[in-house]
Amino acid sequence: MAGSVYPTAHGRATNQSGAVNETLYDIGGKALTMTPSGGYPSGVVKVEWSVTDKKGNKIVIQKLP
Fold first, then answer.
1. Which run of H or E residues covers position 20?
2. Of 7, 22, 57, 65, whose CB has the highest number of CB atoms within 10 Å?
């Protein structure tokens, strides 16, 4: 898109150094797994994305809700 700042911002961003983990939870807080086709299973009420730091600690980077 003309005038977008995305290419500049993306080019200046720090490279990601590891995998981002996605964890799905049901209403009881139980972790769920993706469906065989790669979709979200029914009953998902919370999703959490995290990374693991160099010491092995889980760092949450985003949650919904």
1. none
2. 22
Instruction: List, for residues 22-60, the tens digit of each pLDDT value.
Output: 999 999 999 999 999 999 999 999 999 999 988 999 999
33: left (phi over 0), alpha (psi -120 to 50) or beta: beta
Look at residue 1 and tell me whether its pLDDT is greater than 90: no
22 residue type, one letter: E
Domain ranges of the chain: 6-64
| CA 19 remoteness from chain centre | 9
Instruction: Tell the burial category of 2 from Cβ atoms under 10 Å away from its Cβ (0-12, 13-18, 19+).
Output: exposed
